[in-house]
């Protein structure tokens, strides 16, 4: 179905998700992660009743809810995610939509250059098909 996809949650957030599920989510495969107080899907007004005070308390009165998606996409781009990976994660079907989040990648040129030096020196291995990179000690070469 359009608009639905599996997206991995960063592992460091999983303890918070697990705690939230224990405290606020009913059991069962159809349970909603953020249900309305009376059950079912949460209305936008219910979301904003919590979101607006939270952003105001953080001193970010200008932050729109959709800006959180943008931030997540920019951070994903900053990890070095490819355009195809960003498109899959965000559910974009066009390159132009995903390119909106690539501005962060432009600032990574020095990081990329340093990583190329590490690769040439043999202190890191290339990213494998599984997306993992490992550091090698100087004595392991």
Report on the architecture of this protein:
The chain is an all-alpha fold. Helices cover 49% and strands 0% of the residues. It is built from 7 helices and no strands. The longest helix has 14 residues, at 44-57.
Detail the topology: elements first, then pairings.
Blueprint: H1 14-24, H2 44-57, H3 65-78, H4 83-90, H5 95-99, H6 103-106, H7 109-121
Structural class: mainly alpha
Helix-strand pattern, N to C? Answer: HHHHHHH
Q: State the major sheet.
A: none
Low-confidence parts: none
Q: What would you report as the Rg, rounded to the nearest angstrom?
A: 20 Å
Helix run count: 7
| CA distance, first residue to last residue | 49 Å
Overall spatial form:
elongated
Mean pLDDT: 82
Oligomeric state of shown chains: single chain
The total strand number stands at: 0
- Please give the share of residues in helix: 40-55%
Brief sketch in words of this structure:
The chain has about 140 residues and is mainly alpha-helical.
Task: Write a concise keyword list for the protein shown above.
single chain, 141 residues, mainly alpha, 7 helices, elongated
């Amino acid at each position: 179905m359009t608009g639905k996809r599996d997206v991995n949650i960063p592992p460091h957030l999983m303890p918070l998700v697990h705690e939230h599920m224990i405290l606020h989510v009913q059991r069962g495969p159809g349970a909603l992660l953020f249900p309305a107080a009376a059950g079912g899907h949460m209305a936008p007004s219910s979301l904003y009743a919590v979101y607006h005070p939270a952003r105001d308390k953080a001193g970010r009165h200008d932050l729109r809810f959709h800006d959180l998606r943008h931030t997540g996409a920019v951070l994903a781009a900053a990890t070095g995610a490819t355009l195809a990976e960003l498109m899959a994660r965000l559910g974009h079907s066009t390159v132009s939509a995903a390119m909106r989040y690539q501005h962060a990648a432009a600032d990574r040129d020095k990081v990329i250059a340093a990583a190329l030096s590490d690769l040439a020196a043999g202190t890191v291995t290339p990213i494998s098909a599984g997306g993992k990179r490992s550091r090698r000690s100087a004595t392991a070469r």
